[in-house]
Amino acid sequence: MELDKDQLQIELPYAQRFCQRSVRFYRRIQTTFTFISLLAGSSAIAAIAAQMPVAATWMLAAFSVFGILNFAIRPAEKIAALHADVRKYAALITKSDLLDAPAIQHLLHEARQTDAEEIEPLRAVAYNDVMLEIDELDSLIELSPVQKLMGVLA
């Protein structure tokens, strides 16, 4: 299916917005993990451990799980890659006015090959953002509860 230039010029801000939403999502996750890691190392846990050893043990186990998730997900690396994608799409948006539809399609295809990992529930959220920006309210997608939550986080 060949897209015309107007449709392609909507695809570019959509891709950029998707990356921006993903950056915000990972930044909030990173902030949460950092806060929990600092809390786990604080003296407040030591004070609780003296009075409630069982509760402190469970809290330390939960903090350990969050620390492991932080190492497994590596949000800082994902944020850096997504920032590069945002800049890449911003450059394409700037160039798109001077190009014809096949050239935009080719550059968009090339850009998508090097995109960072994606968070699928954020696709509809980013799409709705762009549709709201261009005042196409009848094109909005109904979001699932998970997508609504992801939209709030991102």
Automatic annotation (TrEMBL):
Answer yes or no on keyword Transmembrane helix.
yes
Transmembrane ranges, per UniProt, are: 31-49, 55-73
UniProt entry keywords in alphabetical sequence: Membrane, Transmembrane, Transmembrane helix
State what protein this is by name. DUF4231 domain-containing protein
**Origin organism of this chain?**
Rugamonas aquatica
